[in-house]
Amino acid sequence: MKIIKDLVEEPDLEWVWEHKNQVTSGFTSKYNVDMLVYYEMHETYAEAARREKRFKNWPRQWKLNLIEKINPVWDDLYKKICS
């Protein structure tokens, strides 16, 4: 999970693309993560930071349940935000 200021701004889309294509080292390349399957929009950075902190403490199954509720077929949402 990562706070991104604005998913449609070029620098932030570049960040998503780099992780999607495993250009950077870290969690995404270590675990072969190549899809954006969930995102949330928040009014303020502080609100997003609070949500990120809570979300990171959730059990894995809670996160999977949330993703499957919002995106049951696990579509790659990167394509959606780029169009």
From TrEMBL:
<dbReference type="InterPro" id="IPR000305">
    <property type="entry name" value="GIY-YIG_endonuc"/>
</dbReference>
<feature type="domain" description="GIY-YIG">
    <location>
        <begin position="18"/>
        <end position="65"/>
    </location>
</feature>
<dbReference type="InterPro" id="IPR035901">
    <property type="entry name" value="GIY-YIG_endonuc_sf"/>
</dbReference>
<dbReference type="Pfam" id="PF01541">
    <property type="entry name" value="GIY-YIG"/>
</dbReference>
<protein>
    <recommendedName>
        <fullName>GIY-YIG domain-containing protein</fullName>
    </recommendedName>
</protein>
<dbReference type="InterPro" id="IPR050190">
    <property type="entry name" value="UPF0213_domain"/>
</dbReference>
<comment type="similarity">
    <text>Belongs to the UPF0213 family.</text>
</comment>
